[in-house]
Design brief:
This protein has about 260 residues and is mainly α. It has 9 helices and no strands.
């Protein structure tokens, strides 16, 4: 009994320190296909429910830590020196270049950077979320986008890794990490967290991988650059999801007709 009591106290103490529940009573840990047992209040909104965040946040923090380690490794081994497998991969892609592959790669280049990624894509996503009555989701996406972009710029300037020489586009400064890959992973993860549907996760994963491939195909990044960008985008999205988790859960359970249709 003493051991059980001490264990219970330790769990409670950890919950107080972290601000998260160690008891997985939310459907996030069950794929959100199963709804937790909650009591509806008088207005139809779900009663308070605990959402386990710790595993998600720890995993995301580990991803960011891995990026920092990778950045330090690149910096201290000479920032302009790619790993052997990266040089070989780049050579293979350069030899395989053809218009049928270059055209879609350039489309991904436009979508993931410049005015498209900084203005058009965010406006479309935030506008769509607001039109379909998801204000907390829109705020979550906005905060995650700003945080990810800021972190990418900081690391780019600290590492200062030159771009590959066989490049087909005109990018900004710094090769590590890939901003395009970070944007793709962030968007995929945020939308996955908001809607929690299998097809959203699958589509997001495919989009992110194609974006990463297109960056190396165009010679804009080494493989490690795209991996670093992907980890930053996904990691930031998950870390910033934690404070929004309960709000997003409640919001998702509400009806979402467009704002020009009355909600019943």
């Amino acid at each position: 009994m003493t051991v059980l009591f001490c264990a219970d106290r330790a769990v409670r103490f950890a919950e107080v320190l972290t601000g998260v529940s160690l008891v997985s009573c939310a459907a996030y840990d069950r794929g959100m296909d199963e709804e937790p047992n909650v009591v509806e209040d008088g207005e139809g909104a779900p009663a308070p429910v605990k959402i386990a965040r710790m595993w998600w946040v720890v995993s995301a923090a580990g991803a960011i830590l891995l990026v920092i380690v990778l950045a330090a490794l690149i910096f201290y081994r000479e920032a302009n020196k790619p790993f052997g497998f990266e040089a070989e991969w780049m050579s293979e892609l350069v030899e395989a270049r053809a218009p049928i592959f270059t055209a879609p790669a350039l489309v991904f280049n436009w979508i993931g950077g410049g005015i498209s990624s900084n203005i058009i894509v965010p406006v479309v996503i935030i506008g769509g979320l607001l039109l379909w009555r998801r204000p907390w989701a829109a705020l979550y996406y906005l905060c995650a986008t700003i945080a990810s972009a800021t972190l990418v710029v900081i690391i780019k300037n600290l590492v200062g890794r030159p771009r590959p020489l066989d490049i087909l586009v005109t990018p900004d400064f710094g090769s590590f990490p890939s901003g395009h890959s970070a944007n793709a992973a962030l968007t995929a993860t945020v939308l996955g967290m908001i809607f929690w549907r299998t097809w959203v996760w699958v589509a997001g994963a495919v989009y992110t991988l194609l974006m990463m491939l297109s960056r190396t195909y165009l010679g804009a990044h080494w493989i490690s650059d795209t991996v670093g960008g992907m980890l930053i985008g996904a990691g930031v999205a998950v870390i910033l999801w934690a404070p929004f988790a309960y709000l997003l859960y409640r919001e998702r359970r509400q009806p979402h007709p467009p704002i020009w249709i009355a909600r019943h």
